[in-house]
Specification:
By secondary structure, the chain is mainly alpha-helical. It has 20 helices and no strands.
């Protein structure tokens, strides 16, 4: 073939298809550049597309004066436009025919054969594909059955295609095909469509989808929303309870352990720990055998209450800004009988830390030093 070498067919095809869909040229170029195609190759392909299909080149915005002139000339321009379109269509058909006449599969890469087969819908060309997987993709017309995957095979960006398809089809599960970096945005975009319809049932029972729906609409949702989770409603009730700091919502959970964990997330002061442990001490089924510590004469019930207090107070230390000294002082100054053993229990746990355990020991050693 005489003249300059024709730009990359894959890039030409990608630009044509996305411009025809109305995608902004800058976004198309950026996607190709992100996929690793050279800027020069992208620009050459774009110019080629505009030569073959000039109608794809977006015209600059027209100001009001020019717009007025166009209105005056619109009748005359209509005839010229019709002639122009016919002429360009004929030229495009002639160009395609010229290319098809010189098609030779010798020396063509697998992707070039795939591209040819997709443009001509000629699967007989697939016999020239050398890669085993790509051969079956070709014979199965992958460009028809999974166009986004076809783009990935061709080395073109597929994430935008999958994401757009997921939003178009309102298919939350489709976002799993998007790369991890963009998956969360895809899911949010799909669920935003559900929200605009005020219809969480479009999540089709997917807990992940419903979690995103709640996150987008939490200001307007309450515990009743969790009914849609069915048997998985505990995780939803926990989200609502924590967001509203409402321990009453925790009591809607069916499991004692779930109610315990929910209250543990919300309780923010030591004065609330003791009354909670008075009624919920058995939820975690603490036993002296599992802890490796026992206080002579102490009942199992008092032991479990003590362990409940220890568990929740440590959560206040680790997550909510309390110091271990505050916890010890509170226990030692309390009139609650079982808390008299708290200091010894506290020392028991941290005296077992070896010298190599640096995650917990130093701050707590300073705290418990001198405690009998």
């Amino acid at each position: 073939m005489a003249g300059n070498k024709k730009p990359n067919e894959n890039v030409i095809s990608y630009i044509e298809q996305h411009l025809e869909k109305g995608v902004d040229l800058k976004k198309v170029k950026r996607a190709l550049a992100d996929a690793g195609h050279p800027i020069e190759a992208i620009e050459e392909a774009a110019e080629y597309v505009f030569r073959v299909k000039p109608h794809l080149r977006k015209q600059p915005k027209t100001n009001m004066i020019v717009y007025g002139i166009i209105i005056v000339l619109i009748i005359a321009a209509a005839a010229v436009f019709a002639y122009f379109k016919i002429t360009q269509t004929v030229k495009y058909v002639e160009e395609v025919q010229k290319v098809e006449k010189i098609v030779t599969f010798e020396g063509m890469s697998d992707n070039e054969v795939l591209l040819y087969a997709s443009k001509t819908n000629d699967t007989s060309a697939c016999k020239h594909v050398k890669d085993h997987n790509k051969y079956y993709y070709c014979t199965g017309s992958i460009w028809e059955t999974d166009y986004c995957f076809f783009q990935r095979i061709m080395g073109l960006p597929g994430d935008v295609c999958y994401s757009d398809q997921a939003v178009k089809d309102l298919d939350f599960a489709e976002c799993r095909r998007v790369s991890r970096a963009l998956r969360e945005q895809c899911q949010s975009d799909v669920v935003a469509q559900f929200s605009s319809r005020n219809d969480p049932s479009l999540c089709d029972g997917s807990v992940s989808c419903l979690d995103v729906y709640y996150a987008l609409n939490k200001a307007s949702l309450d515990a009743d929303f969790c009914d849609i989770y069915g048997s998985e409603n505990a995780s939803c009730l926990l989200m609502v309870a924590v967001d509203r700091s409402d321990r009453k919502i925790c009591n809607l959970m069916s499991g004692a352990a779930e109610r315990y964990d929910c209250n543990k997330e919300i309780i923010n002061d030591l004065d609330s720990v003791v009354p909670f442990c008075e009624t919920s001490y058995a939820a975690r089924n603490f036993t002296p055998g599992t802890v490796g510590w026992v206080s002579p004469g102490q009942t199992l019930q008092d032991f479990q209450k003590l362990m409940c207090f220890y568990d929740l107070s440590q959560d206040l230390v680790w997550k909510k800004g309390f110091t271990c000294r505050q916890v010890l002082d509170y226990a030692q100054g309390s009139s609650v009988g079982y808390l008299s053993d708290f200091a010894r229990l506290y020392k028991h746990f941290y005296s077992r830390q070896s010298e190599d355990d640096e995650g917990l020991d130093f701050a707590y050693w300073r705290c418990i030093s001198g405690v009998a």
